[in-house]
């Protein structure tokens, strides 16, 4: 009988897998020509915030809110020119990271679908100039 999970967080393997996912994701982001320039050289604080946010977003402990308050992610991303192309590039990097950490295809697709809405919600400009 297939195990039923209460949250995406549990389904993907909790904290250890989420940590690996963030560690696999950010090198791809930094190397991407559309995304890399948006991020600071010291990516560690960004990675930690992403880990905390995704933990909470996927149904785990409320790490992000406990430390930083309500996520307000759209507002936090407003200073950066987020184009539709950048949203898709972000999702592509995440897709590769999900595959790299070994999530099975159906779960990878489910996680990506869950992230598509927020990724496109952050779009705030049509061109990257």
Task: Describe this entry's structure for a reader.
Belongs to the truncated hemoglobin family. Group II subfamily. Its cofactor is heme. With 129 residues, the protein is mainly α. It has one domain: Globin-like (Orthogonal Bundle), CATH 1.10.490. Helices cover 64% and strands 0% of the residues. It contains seven helices and no strands. It has helices spanning 8-12, 14-31, 44-57, 63-68, 73-77, 84-100, 105-121. Helix 6 runs antiparallel to helix 7.
Q: Tags for this entry?
A:
0% strand, globular, mainly alpha, 7 helices, Globin-like
Short summary of the structure?
With 129 residues, the protein is mostly helical. Helices cover 64% and strands 0% of the residues. It is built from 7 helices and no strands.
Chart the SSEs and their pairings:
Layout: H1 8-12, H2 14-31, H3 44-57, H4 63-68, H5 73-77, H6 84-100, H7 105-121
Helix pairs in contact: 2-3, 2-6, 6-7
Binding site for heme: 120
InterPro entries: GlbO/GLB3-like (IPR044203), Globin-like_sf (IPR009050), Globin/Proto (IPR012292), Hemoglobin_trunc (IPR001486)
Family: Belongs to the truncated hemoglobin family. Group II subfamily.
């Amino acid at each position: 009988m297939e195990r039923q999970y209460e949250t995406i967080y549990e389904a993907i393997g909790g904290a250890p897998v989420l940590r690996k996912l963030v560690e696999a994701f950010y090198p791809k982001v930094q190397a991407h020509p559309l995304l890399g320039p948006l991020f600071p050289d010291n990516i560690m604080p960004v990675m930690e915030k992403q880990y905390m946010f995704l933990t909470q977003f996927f149904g785990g402990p409320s790490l992000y809110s406990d430390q930083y308050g309500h996520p307000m992610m759209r507002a936090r991303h407003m200073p950066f020119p987020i184009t539709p192309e950048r949203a898709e590039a972000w999702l592509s990097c995440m897709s590769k990271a999900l595959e790299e950490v070994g999530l099975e295809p159906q779960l990878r697709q489910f996680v990506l679908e869950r992230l598509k809405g927020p990724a496109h919600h952050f779009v705030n400009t049509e061109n990257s100039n």
